[in-house]
Amino acid sequence: MLNYIWLGLVVAAVAIGGWHNLTGAPTGTLKEMTEKGFEMTRVAVMDIALPLAGIMALWLGIMRLAEKAGLVQLLARAFRPGMKWLFPDVPADHPAMGSMLMNMAANSLGLANAATPLGLRAMKDLETLNPRPGTASNAMCTFLAINTSSIQLLPVMAVAVLVVQGSVQPYAIIGTAMLATTLAATAGITAVKLLEKLPWYRLPPTAASEAGRAGDPLPAKAQSKASDAPGGPRPAHTEAEPAPLNWVSIGALVLFLLFFGMLFVAISFPESLNHPVPAAMQQQNAFVRALNTISLLAIPFMLAFFPLYAALRRVKVYEQFVEGAKEGFQVAITIIPFLVAILVAVGLFRGAGGIDLISRGLRPVLDLLHFPTELLPMCLMRPLSGSGTLGMFTELVKEFGPDSLMARTAGTIFGSTETTFYVVAVYFGAVNVRRTRHAVPAGLIADAVGMVASVILCRIMFG
């Protein structure tokens, strides 16, 4: 599907830009389109891929420590029933289960800098189970659908924009975003499970699946592919178990957890320690304070807890961190061509005025459906570009006011949907998957449900 989408964006951009030149339009010409396309090549490499290399190295190093210490496997066992329903083709004790859970947790807290590296690691782990190189497995498509519609407990960026613009109640959208993204996630999971059964998306049987049904091991080719993948398949039974925790180690962990518990109380409820309460916090209820504090402490907690736990279990933390970091750097370099391809196509289409053209064409229909037409350009941009959507959201907040129904609806949409094409390009690019099957339709369905749900919920709660 990405082949047709990419070709359609490029050809449509040239056609629209050429038409604007013929008609003498002041914007959306071929010159603007070309400049935007070359700008996106720089953005793809300099602003996304290279900074991501450092972030990937950090988080995959931390992830390797968590895995070597047994934390990832422990997390996977704790959520085994639900994960087995979502991913029936993934063995319950496979590292992919823990990687996916870590990604989902980071996404739910709005920790984008951690969620993307953990998600890419999960895709690498899922690829070790994929008998069809270059074609997305059902598990990969399901994971992408969850990522493009993951439940957000705290829409950090949307709230930040409202705060900067002077909103009196910037946290009012937390409830609507949470409900809208829950509906979007439900729609995405339902769609991906139904679409995978359709004839044109169904996977043909493979020798590996037939061998599995017969109780035989994977064929040699699949075993070789799994063992050659970065980091390898890392099955639990082939690695030495980390040393058990003794009483001194348990005591150290208890002290560590107590320290972060005290930090949580001090930051969330400073009045309990006779500390002054910041003006911004005085308008927040206990739930919002707790969510903000969890988001603030989550990354420092993981950066300290995983190495500490691994060290207490006699893992060589520095050596293992470096090994994981090497993998992270390699992944970041691998995705550059895929990033350039999708972002240049989006930049050309946007620079040619394609978004504005579609908005004008759909406006009469949306008026009949009572969908706010002012939100349409932002909704069309959302699956394509996160930065473009953020700019449109900011403009809407400035135009209508930070506490208006329009601003809150736009914030809810921003916080409950995802840049589907970017996610697909980055995640599948990391494992060289070119046949994405039903991942894109499922992601777009989740986005559409999230947008419609945002409008309805905001009208009910703020209208």
Kindly describe this structure:
- The chain contains 21 helices and no strands.
- With 463 residues, the chain is mainly α.
- The two termini are 39 Å apart.
- 45% of the residues are buried.
Low-confidence stretches: 208-238
Average of pLDDT: 85
**What's the total number of strands?**
0
Main beta sheet: none
Question: Total domains, how many?
Answer: 2
Helicity level, as a percent range?
A: over 70%
Mind telling me the C-alpha Rg? 23 Å
Number of alpha- plus pi-helical segments: 21
Report how far the terminal alpha carbons are from each other. Answer: 39 Å
Given the helix and strand composition, which structural class is it? mainly alpha
Shape: globular
H/E series: HHHHHHHHHHHHHHHHHHHHH
In terms of DSSP E residues, the strand content is: under 5%
Question: What's the SSE blueprint?
Answer:
Blueprint (H helix, E strand, L loop, with lengths): L1 H22 L6 H39 L2 H8 L1 H7 L8 H14 L3 H16 L10 H10 L8 H9 L8 H23 L11 H7 L6 H9 L18 H22 L17 H27 L4 H18 L1 H16 L2 H15 L7 H6 L4 H15 L4 H12 L3 H10 L9 H24 L1
Helix pairs in contact: 1-2, 1-15, 2-6, 2-13, 2-14, 2-15, 3-5, 5-6, 6-7, 7-9, 7-21, 8-19, 9-19, 9-21, 12-13, 15-20, 18-19, 19-21
